[in-house]
Specification:
36% of the residues lie in helices and 19% in strands. The protein has 229 residues and is an alpha/beta fold. It is globular and about 50 Å long. Strands 3-2-1-4-5-7-6 form a seven-stranded mixed beta sheet, with helices on both faces. Helix 1 links the parallel strand 1 and strand 2. It has one domain: LmbE-like (Rossmann fold, 3-Layer(aba) Sandwich), CATH 3.40.50.10320.
């Protein structure tokens, strides 16, 4: 992916989704002098069973997200406080309107967001909202929409009857994989021991697998939803 002086908008359900999903690509785009924004819709922690010290956990997650975003080269993060892992309880229209509002302000050339059929329901809803909010209109600046995979969510949607992630767009992250690893390490509670997919080795293994699929050392894979030349 070669772009310069463009605007990129990452739209994710939770802080950490972008780091695990497309952190190498984000850093590569930042290195190419593109301006990158990110929107997160939930805090990513409040749905967990242990509610002790929840306020601190939410604040810590935001601090971790801020650190990770700097590593990836994101210039501004926008945080919403919708219920974590319960976006199905929120009006889809409200989520769409939040996305539309930022699209009008930021005017992105490219959007990166979730694959439509992840195991995580929040990911599914954000995908649906993005697709609706980016309906093709005359004079729309947006030219490209890419859907990323999220470790321990995309590959865990086991079913022969539903659509699976079948990438058709690959980005060489051989020079930015280290930035991706550093960014995910900001989320200590989200990084596990191998063979968990959200381990350092798991992230590298997927990058190697996606890379060797297209003759590269390391890559991130996407589904190209829309491309306008």
């Amino acid at each position: 992916m070669k772009m310069k002086n463009k605007t990129v908008l990452v739209i994710a359900a939770h802080p950490d989704d972008d780091a695990f999903g497309c952190g190498g690509t984000i850093r590569k785009l930042a290195n190419q002098k593109n301006r990158i924004y990110a929107i997160y819709f939930t805090d990513g922690v409040s749905a967990r069973i242990n509610k002790k010290g929840l306020k601190k956990k939410i604040n810590d997650r935001k601090k971790n997200s801020d650190k990770a975003s700097k590593i990836m080269g994101i210039c501004k993060c926008i945080y919403h406080s919708f219920p974590d892992n319960q976006l199905d309880k929120v009006s889809l229209l409200e989520i769409i309107q939040k996305i539309e509002e930022q699209i009008k302000k930021i005017k992105p050339d490219i959007i990166l967001t979730h694959f439509e059929n992840d195991l995580n329901l929040d990911h599914q809803i954000i995908n649906r909202a993005v697709v609706t909010a980016t309906r093709p209109k005359p004079n729309l600046k947006l030219k490209k929409i890419l859907l990323f995979e999220t470790l321990s969510s995309t590959e865990w949607k086991f079913s022969n009857k539903t659509k699976v992630f079948n990438p058709n767009y690959f980005v060489d992250i051989s020079k930015t994989l280290n930035h991706k690893i550093k960014s995910i390490k900001c989320y200590k509670e989200e990084v596990f021991k191998w063979p968990h997919p959200r381990s350092e080795k798991g992230v590298k293994t997927l990058a190697m697998y996606r890379g060797q699929s297209v003759g590269l050392k390391f890559a991130e894979a996407f589904q190209l939803l829309r491309n306008i030349d």
